[in-house]
Amino acid sequence: MTATASGQAGPAAITAPLGVAVVGHSFMGKAHSNAWRNVSAFYGSPAVAQRIIVGRDPGRAAAAADRYGWAESATDWRRVLGRTDIHIVDICTPGQLHAGLAVAALEAGKHVLVEKPLANSVAEAELMTAAAERAAAGGTMSMVGFNYRRVPALAQARAMIAGGRLGELRQLRIAYLQDWLADRAAPMTWRLRRETAGSGALGDLASHAVDQVHFLTGACITGVSARLSTFVPEREGPSGPEPVTVDDAVWATLQLDSGAVVSLEASRCATGRKNALQIEAYGSRGSLRFDLERINELHFYDAEAPDALQGAARILVTEPAHPYVEAWWPPGHVLGWDHTFTSQAADFLSAIAGGRRPEPSFADGLAVQRVLAAIESSAAKDGAAVGLPVSGPPSSSSTEAAGEAR
Amino acid sequence: MTATASGQAGPAAITAPLGVAVVGHSFMGKAHSNAWRNVSAFYGSPAVAQRIIVGRDPGRAAAAADRYGWAESATDWRRVLGRTDIHIVDICTPGQLHAGLAVAALEAGKHVLVEKPLANSVAEAELMTAAAERAAAGGTMSMVGFNYRRVPALAQARAMIAGGRLGELRQLRIAYLQDWLADRAAPMTWRLRRETAGSGALGDLASHAVDQVHFLTGACITGVSARLSTFVPEREGPSGPEPVTVDDAVWATLQLDSGAVVSLEASRCATGRKNALQIEAYGSRGSLRFDLERINELHFYDAEAPDALQGAARILVTEPAHPYVEAWWPPGHVLGWDHTFTSQAADFLSAIAGGRRPEPSFADGLAVQRVLAAIESSAAKDGAAVGLPVSGPPSSSSTEAAGEAR
Amino acid sequence: MTATASGQAGPAAITAPLGVAVVGHSFMGKAHSNAWRNVSAFYGSPAVAQRIIVGRDPGRAAAAADRYGWAESATDWRRVLGRTDIHIVDICTPGQLHAGLAVAALEAGKHVLVEKPLANSVAEAELMTAAAERAAAGGTMSMVGFNYRRVPALAQARAMIAGGRLGELRQLRIAYLQDWLADRAAPMTWRLRRETAGSGALGDLASHAVDQVHFLTGACITGVSARLSTFVPEREGPSGPEPVTVDDAVWATLQLDSGAVVSLEASRCATGRKNALQIEAYGSRGSLRFDLERINELHFYDAEAPDALQGAARILVTEPAHPYVEAWWPPGHVLGWDHTFTSQAADFLSAIAGGRRPEPSFADGLAVQRVLAAIESSAAKDGAAVGLPVSGPPSSSSTEAAGEAR
Amino acid sequence: MTATASGQAGPAAITAPLGVAVVGHSFMGKAHSNAWRNVSAFYGSPAVAQRIIVGRDPGRAAAAADRYGWAESATDWRRVLGRTDIHIVDICTPGQLHAGLAVAALEAGKHVLVEKPLANSVAEAELMTAAAERAAAGGTMSMVGFNYRRVPALAQARAMIAGGRLGELRQLRIAYLQDWLADRAAPMTWRLRRETAGSGALGDLASHAVDQVHFLTGACITGVSARLSTFVPEREGPSGPEPVTVDDAVWATLQLDSGAVVSLEASRCATGRKNALQIEAYGSRGSLRFDLERINELHFYDAEAPDALQGAARILVTEPAHPYVEAWWPPGHVLGWDHTFTSQAADFLSAIAGGRRPEPSFADGLAVQRVLAAIESSAAKDGAAVGLPVSGPPSSSSTEAAGEAR
């Protein structure tokens, strides 16, 4: 660690490979472990070393280390922060632990990746963003894991919108639909309690949708009108029926500073939809359509094609010309959901190596959090519009040169 | 005509075939003419005679009569109402003429079919509904032309929902997307002026969507939160740039008395969508999906199928077991958009012959109008929810036995 | 009738409207009646009069006349040929009657439309083609009813191929799949007996496929390798089990004189396919895809689009820029199966009025028949290739100017 | 190694983890390396150690080792066979090296996995199969890498067919379409020379299709009728234009001993198709449809569903109830192309650990080779049918109990 002007510990000096610690070993821990295990094979240097996985239960943590390729396991993340062979801390815990862990790790000079959503509240997210700003001044980087930014089709979509292919963007339709709560008999879990999960489909699913609005359009959300519903108000818990205190579904219209309007719907009761993040973007010159269940496809309608030939083209986003694809396989050899995490890790490593601030930043995560809060606030007021400050474009619209300012 | 208790003229005595007059000969006049020309060939009796077509311009009316199979043409609809060989008046004029024409025709003892939307305002619709009630007491029938109720796939969907195939219905997603106004250079027309068209995508497209909510669910809309936008505020008119005074797009969430929530979006700027009335219905036991651009298909997800076999089945709605299909062609020989009007005419004739009140009634048209008004009202209040009275189920949920009460 | 150089009766002098007689009143009689009833409304002049429908059973013929809009009915087609108010004879009978009827009608100076396939044998088709040639010399026109040439998407496909959009055409994949014989319990009918039906899926379905090869490519089929199968060799007839003497399915590869190769498959046992005429055409510059069950769509892949944007565009073939569409409805208002017959009638009338020879001609029908015969011959030789003479391009590749040569 | 009755070296004694050597480090070497790197993380024990990667060029081999996670690299595979810490040899070289390498490795007591197709000729495949039989007697296992057997949707399809869900299977339609040779300017490579590649689309693509016929149906192919074409007979090589001596496309019909017929088409000139292995299976009770470009989906039509509800269900094959899925992610979190190799490695390891003979065996690979040879032979005889001996069902139809016979 090196002393910096800000008085904080700077990033650990990089001796290749970068040492990684992951905190958490369930669903997200498994997905992130997979990313660290494979990132070098596909994206080359900087190489990483899977140093340690952290979990509360020593036996399960050891088993996870063994299975997922980590050299060691541990139960106390604080001790991990003291190790000089750890350069990156990857936080895959439940949301209520994000803030404490992330701030401590940044202050210890570790680069930090945090699973989405950034936090359970705006206040926590603000704290984390402030810590990230201070750390960045010393060269310590941070990122929030909105992994769908690394879906090649969505990165392609963003490039097309930025390049003007859609002309003036007017309407976005975004739905994120799953169905694992459609069955009334699905049991109570921590995800259905407000105190542990913060919210329901809102934080879990709509957060991705809101981040995509920022990512795809580069615009700011200036106003929100929303509704929340809980279709199944009570579910069977470990000790009998228990009230569900989060939303099953959310609806919102979002006003963008560009004049465009977004309709957003998220639900975990949409029978037959398994992981359907569906995005449609309509502009004056063309439109785009995407469904996460068909992750390799992007549909593009070019309104400037000859009249008789206009139609939505199903682009199989597996060509070398498409973002991220060249690292993987030849055309037509499709990618899956987990590849997005590997590409995310690669982007994070590349930013660290290049001294650039990675995206999406904690500030981007905070921007999402503010929209989620506005949605809850509007829903509480029966749909009446709630305004949001125009805070300058989120970092997703910044240029790569941003990093050079350091 | 026979005197009735209500003092009004009763329906003209039926001497087969029923004589029809249509008022209007542009887009809708052509579509309705097609229906009257073909209804007997597919649905049998009662036979109809295409007596007369009415239009303002004598030359164009005569040409339309010649082309579309009408025996005569006329320019004054009032004189038509006096003819005893006319039993049905079919109104295909612009909306502002609906009320005057329909009330006069009903009072003259003619059965009346009115193109949707029923009227340009709630007040007009109320007037018409009252007239329809009086006429019905004397056996004179009326109907509003929400032709999509006769799409076999949607009639099948309604039957499945009513039969419990979806279980408890929770979410509907309805979008009606077209793109003929996406091009900024599309010229000013009467459809873009509030004084002539009443509203934009709202009355033109969302009216169909709202009627489908009533039709498919049999439930009442009790509250509305909405937004309207006009993306292109000025267009080139015959004498230079002119302000557009109607909406280009509308978004709403509708609360149903059943507890279900509907998201609704309609736009005439959705580049690449030509006539996409898209409906998704999610229930506890299954879900349905429909797109008017693929009018012969209905997708049904059965959540009670064996786990490994669950998937949305693409039902080609061309089997004899499906509504309306038996009148047409063998399986796989698909129908088009215009067939819905022929089936609509058949339903109207069948109700008249059977002494039943046809659906959707003027009261159903009025129910739609009230929702459209609530949408405008909520949009004017920046999305704040606007309530609607629970007025008893619209006729669409009534049983066929309703007619027998007479 | 006027005397002509060939000594045959010339076409009846046209006094508007043209009088039409249809022979046959079951499935095809209903479809053709629909076409004659509507053709003037959509395509304008020349107007037609539905004079008479002919059937063996007087009661059923009279009922069909009443229902389908014909002025009269008759049981003896020979007497119809003598009437001077009949200008067009439309033959919708089973195949074994085509030749006798068509030749007699042509010799009586009537324009003749014959349902596909032209005949049950090459010999009959040759006879008919010779008669058609003689009649044409005197201005009497003839056409065979391959109605799918009037599917807007397929006419659009043909224009694109002819215009070079696909570059050098290399492979066609054509399947025509139905499933009404998949159930072993489906009963014996005349369609499953060789003496009445000629063949099975071959004549019924593959004939359309072969005509599309001619229509879409303008090339000649020079060689055939094929196989036939009957999966259910016996079915329950009116008096017990009976052998099925036609094919349930056919497979063939066709060599074109252009160097392209066509794979063809037709079946009436393809469970789940209702009327799936599926066509794929692959060329050096692009490809096309079509499915009759989605009759309004054509998928076009443009290999010359920018790399990252290449994808098969789903063209909704409902624009004024597309063939036939302008006669019907606005964009997105889809057509069905029966509209192809109306457009076919319009093309026939237009050719008669313009003194052009309509397409597909009897010679085109004969060309199809020869390919079907070669398929049977190859199948009998266990797949060994059977050659076909290059007979010059079928008329489908001729220019419209052909008519002017008269 | 232990001596066995057959006098061959038996399998190396297993001391966990199993040591793996891979030969080859280009496309397939990368894909197989990925499998070995990840198999333990998803499928658990037996664990494997990535010992060594072998390649001709020492520098490139070392780089591959570094990148893909191998402990060492080497240039001489013969020396690798002598190492006692290597238990598995995975052959990813061009086809002409398969036989020599595989036989030597088996004789050295190594378990062997060979990329498909098994060999470049029937003679080589026979040699390899004999060696595999001898080795198996001593407990040394072998497998050929038809990785698409591990696509969850195809494994699910096989289970459904075996379980009778399709009833009597009648028709299969299989196409494997790519387009990387559609452009006439695509350069000459070793894949387009007969001496190096054996054949073109036939060995490269049709081999997968033929293996799927065996895998899905468990039936034997008893006869073949086929055609081959080379659309672009000359391409630009390193020293000027060179003749292409392999096929661009192949068409065949295959007769199964069950009575079913398969149509097969493979092409590398099918513009717009990137990796489209498309399979349709039609039976008396239902049908299935699959496209490798949508690797997570299987479409199932159940002909025994109620009439009005029949339709092809799009099954998203990502449920725990589906084959292989449980090892990966929750429902809707889709897999990609490379996951099939990881599952293939898992199956291989599980068979080794359980003392069962893995599938597809070299005998299965030989069976495919014989069909490919018959296709070439039929094509050389202009499509005349070529018979194949019924050799008993390939191992793919054997039960798991097969392994117990040891």
From TrEMBL, chains A, B, C, D:
Residues 384-406 are annotated as: Disordered. Keywords: NAD, Oxidoreductase. This is Dehydrogenase. PANTHER family: BCDNA.GH03377 (PTHR43818:SF11). Transmembrane segments: none annotated. SUPFAM superfamilies: Glyceraldehyde-3-phosphate dehydrogenase-like, C-terminal domain, NAD(P)-binding Rossmann-fold domains. Residues 155-289 form the GFO/IDH/MocA-like oxidoreductase domain. Residues 386-398 have a biased composition (Low complexity). Residues 19-135 form the Gfo/Idh/MocA-like oxidoreductase N-terminal domain. It comes from the Bacteria. The keyword Oxidoreductase applies.
